[in-house]
Structures are given as structure tokens and as C-alpha cells.
Amino acid sequence: MRLTTKGRYAVTAMLDLSINYGSGSITLADISERQSISLSYLEQLFSKLRKHNLVSSARGPGGGYKLSRPAEEITVFDVISAVDENIDSTACKKQANCRNGEKCLSHHLWCSLSDQIQNFLSGITLGQVISDYQNSPDDAQKINISGL
Length: 148
Description:
Elements: H1 5-19, H2 28-35, H3 39-51, E1 55-58, E2 64-67, H4 76-82, H5 107-122, H6 126-134
Antiparallel strand pairs: 1-2
């Protein structure tokens, strides 16, 4: 399993929206500037996030995006899944045909790892990530919140 920039950027952008939850709509241009993510890439990601009802959009002056529900109700797995990120650690996509059409010796190990990763990401909400960041006692590791 390798989390690509697609998944990382989607989570980062959603965390940016989480910080601003309740402040009205946020433009993708603002997120792009704060997070150093290409605007066109954000447009692609937000199209998928909107289709999965994780964000809502408003057009016109004052338009932009906002979370469709509180950050405490959206898991990191929800976001990663919405942008079609694969968290499968198996080489066979859990089909058990990894060794010449047969199950390999380590098939169950990689399936279990995939399940553990999914369970871990399903148990963490955007709200928790923001709270953990803001309450981190290690100030040396903190970065400017606008540059998550």
C-alpha cells in the first residue's frame, strides 16, 4: 500500500476546510495558496469529494466549498476512499490469485495489514487530526497551521 499525492492532498485540503468549518465557503484558490496544491488538481479532487457528499459547493460571490458535515463525522478513510485511493497491500487485489492463479503464502498477512490500515483510518476523524495537531505538546514539530 502506498498513499499517493492524491490521497495526501485530499486529506490536507479537507483538513484546511475543517479548520475553517463554520466560516462559510472556502475557495479552492485559498486552499491552493495555503497548502501549495495546484488549483487544477484541487478541482479534480473536489469533484470526487462532492460526489461522495463530503463537501458541498456554492457558486457566485462568496462561493466555494465547505464540509458537508462536521469534521468529527468525516473519517480519513472516507476522504481517501472518495478520491479512489487504494489501501490494499496485496499484490493480487485480494483475489487470492497472486502465485500463478493460486494464493501465495503471505496472502493472509497482506490482507490483514490492509484491514488494519483501513480500520485505523476509519477510526480517525478530520476533527481528531486537527485537535491532535493543535494540542501537540511538541512545539518544535508544529508548523504554521495554514501550511498543514
